[in-house]
């Protein structure tokens, strides 16, 4: 997989991409990820990438010419991109399904916005996909782009040492992950669950699955609509629902409400 990030802060992006799983995968040549300095694609003495907004108003807007020049130069060098992604809080929400879709592509270009955003003609003509990492606004597209690149690259076979660990992560199979423990067996009076030190692999697998189901039910019941369940999962879910009903607790909903939010209904 080849990914090019277009940014006015290549050092910021490079620093993050040099470390950890992604850094090692780049060194081994499993993925080819590069930060491109947008100012290299300007044609004036001051290497200008922004200008005042038409119609007035606060802030600056990223000019279209350098972005078009950058995407076209990258296409000439690498071949046409499978997707040109613009990071924007107005884009489609970045979910596991979006990660999977992008991880199947060969060549991706990611545009990091700054200021008030980019000239709309970039989105109209160059961009094939607009992605948001959440309903909040950051000062630039570099951190969002790094979120996208990290999540996408770790689904590329060979990037994470053990492919099984990616397959077991939260969301990969529709469930949240089970809890993890390491040594010591007792820490500040809190012991690791007995089953994990029992050496009984069948029991451990059953416990982990039950924990996935319980956690997903408690923390993200919205995921249950799409999760593929076994008979054991359904039995456990029925028990959890019954227990909640008996305790007079309604099933928790993750509807974006924060503690302290008031609602009329
Ligand atoms: N005026 C824009 C708006 O309200 O939609 C926000 C511009 S923001 C200050 C500057 C850049 O940060 C954006 O162009 C985008 O590239 C990036 N950005 C900020 N928040 C983001 C988010 N939640 N998801 C993806 N990109 C984001």
Describe the structure in your own words.
This protein is α/β, with parallel strands linked by helices. It folds into two domains: 2-163, Alpha/beta knot, CATH 3.40.1280.10; 170-265, Trp Operon Repressor, Chain A, CATH 1.10.1270. 37% of the residues lie in helices and 15% in strands. The chain contains nine helices and nine strands. It has helices at 10-17, 20-28, 64-78, 96-103, 120-126, 142-153, 163-167, 201-219, 231-246, and strands at residues 2-7, 32-37, 50-51, 61-62, 83-93, 107-111, 129-132, 186-187, 190-191. It has a five-stranded parallel β-sheet, sandwiched between helices. The protein has a two-stranded antiparallel ribbon with strand order 3-4. Strand 8 and strand 9 form a beta hairpin. Helix 1 packs parallel to helix 6 (142-153), helix 4 (96-103) packs across helix 6 (142-153) and helix 8 crosses helix 9 (231-246). The longest helix has 19 residues, at 201-219. The protein is elongated, with a radius of gyration of 23 Å. S-adenosylmethionine is lined by residues 87-90, 112-114, 116-117, 132-134, 136-141, 144.
């Amino acid at each position: 997989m080849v990914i090019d990030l277009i940014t006015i802060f290549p050092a910021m992006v490079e620093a993050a991409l040099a470390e950890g799983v992604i850094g090692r995968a780049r060194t081994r040549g499993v993925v080819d990820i590069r930060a491109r300095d947008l100012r290299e694609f300007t044609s004036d003495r001051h290497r200008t990438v922004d200008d005042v907004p038409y119609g007035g108003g606060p802030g600056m807007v990223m000019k279209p010419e350098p972005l078009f020049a950058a995407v076209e130069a990258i296409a000439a060098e690498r071949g046409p991109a499978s997707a040109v992604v613009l990071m924007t809080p107005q884009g489609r929400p970045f979910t596991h399904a979006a990660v999977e879709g992008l991880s199947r592509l060969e060549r991706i270009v990611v545009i990091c916005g700054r200021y008030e955003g980019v000239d709309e003609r970039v989105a109209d003509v160059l961009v094939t996909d607009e992605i948001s990492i959440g309903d909040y606004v950051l000062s630039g597209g570099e951190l969002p782009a790094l979120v996208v690149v990290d999540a996408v690259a770790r689904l590329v076979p060979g990037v994470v040492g053990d492919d099984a660990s990616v397959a077991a992560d939260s969301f990969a199979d529709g469930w949240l992950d089970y809890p993890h423990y390491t040594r010591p067996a007792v820490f500040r009076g809190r012991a690791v669950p007995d089953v994990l030190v029992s050496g009984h692999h069948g029991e451990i697998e059953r416990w982990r699955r039950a924990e996935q189901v319980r956690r997903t039910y408690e923390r993200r019941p919205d995921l249950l609509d799409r999760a593929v369940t076994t008979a054991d999962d359904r039995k456990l879910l029925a028990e959890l629902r019954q227990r909640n009903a008996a305790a007079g607790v309604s099933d928790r909903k993750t509807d974006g409400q924060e503690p302290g939010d008031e609602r009329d209904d």
